[in-house]
Amino acid sequence: MVAFSEKRDGPALTSTKKFSYEIEDVLKQVYGVTVPYCYLLPHYFLGDFLMAFDQNLKPVPVPEAIVEVKWGQVKPAPNDGKIYLALLVGGWNTLIRNDGRPLGTMVAKIRQLKTIGYHPVLVS
Q1: Domain span at 39
Q2: Total domains in the fold of the chain
Q3: Per-residue confidence in pLDDT tens, the chain, 124 aa
Q4: Residue 110 vs residues 10, 29, 86, 103, 115: alpha-carbon distances, Å
């Protein structure tokens, strides 16, 4: 499983990527688990952090079967009794300025993630 932070090297970081690193660091500190960065919907440029919780709302590892699905395929949430959260990073170009509501593409992504069984959470 590849964590988002393992990709920190490279050209200058965008504000959205910097924010994504901060989110990953906080999730690791709070929940104590590595949170995979996945492309659940292949037709979107940005991926999402994926978390799994049991029925008692305790974090559990995300199954490798979700993370390892081939590139370019939709990754529906398994029907295994766990709750799957897709954490969407709300960058400056996905939200209405001075308002915080998501723009059309982010609204569509949230709707599509719900359709395939995830509980989307917009982090901004």
Answers
A1: 4-123
A2: 1
A3: 445 555 555 567 787 788 888 888 898 888 887 889 888 999 988 889 999 999 999 999 998 888 877 778 899 999 999 999 999 988 777 888 888 888 899 999 999 999 999 999 999 8
A4: 29, 26, 9, 11, 9
